[in-house]
Structure formats: C-alpha cells, structure tokens
Amino acid sequence: MAKELYIGIDKNDVNKRLVNTVCRFKDDPVYVLGSREHVLELYEMTTGRRFKQDYRVPEFDYRSPPLGYINVENRAFYLTRLPSRGNQRQGLCHSTVWCSDPGFRAQDYISSKELRLCILGQHPSLTNAVEMLENEYESVAISRHVAINKLATSTLGLHYRGRLVGTRERGQWRLLDSGDSSIIEPLIRKAGVPL
Q: Which of 69-81 are b and which e, b meaning 16 or more Cβ less than 10 Å from the residue's Cβ?
C-alpha cells in the first residue's frame, strides 16, 4: 500500500505526512512517532512497545482508519474524521478527529488502547453493555455505529452515529418513528439489538 504513494517522495515529506498519525501495520493500528529515511518509529497501542519499520512494505497502511464509537472510562463517544484541505497527513491525527461532545479531547486518546479497539471495531456485546450500564457506566458502544445509555431508571436509549434512534422499556427494544427507520433497523439488528 505505502510503496505506491511514496516512490520518489523525499524524507521530509514522509515526515510531514506520517509522523504523529495513526496508521496500520499488519492491520493493527500503530502510532507513528518519527521517521528516518524509509524507516518509521512506531508505537504499538496495546503494549506501548516501540519498534522500527520500513513504510514501503505492503503490510504498512497509511490510509486513515475507520472511526465510530469509542468507549472511554465510563462513556461512549462518537468520533468522525473531519475533512481538511490544510492537513496533508495520510494517517489519522488528533486535529482531524471530531466528537460532538466538547468534553472529549482527541489528543488525549490518539495513541490509546481505546482508540485501537474503536478502529478495529471491537466492542462489548449488548448483554455485556447492559450489565456495564447497571454498574455505573453512563453509555456503552456495542458496535462502530451503535451505543446504548441510561435515559431513566428503567429506560435505555439506543443511539446510531451519535443520534437517539430508539429505546428499551420493560425489556423491549423499539425504534423511534423517523423517516430513516427502515434504513437504520437492519444496521441496529446487525449490532445485536433484537427489535
């Protein structure tokens, strides 16, 4: 993947495009700490291990990884990538991550285990998420685009891409009436929510 992009590009350009971004190596998200010639210093987001890797190998993927819900501490936040003409970075950098909650600071999580799980689409099951809500969590993501939260003592909210689209009352999940319910329903079911 990287070989095609960087043939003939000088090391300063590589440094500008990749350093301080999240890319993927062997499909696992890594944070790029620095570069020298054709070698990057990478940070493994699960263990904190640093290692060096030539970016011209096919296992290195510089494209911006997918985002969605991230579980941080006891909350779920929905993240998207902002388009930016001024930013010429190839990977994901904190300045291009947007969250509707102003309390979320992307720079605090750009190289975190939580962001790694978000990028990989690894979230708790619906059953585990409901248990987490019973144990002081405010909200929990169950897939890249679906999260649940407590609305009231016995009512849970169902969110799709940061928007309330349904509820669970008396053990029954239901979608709120909207013009896009027929589009959202199969995606919510795919996340494991029985409607």
A: bbbbeebbbbbee
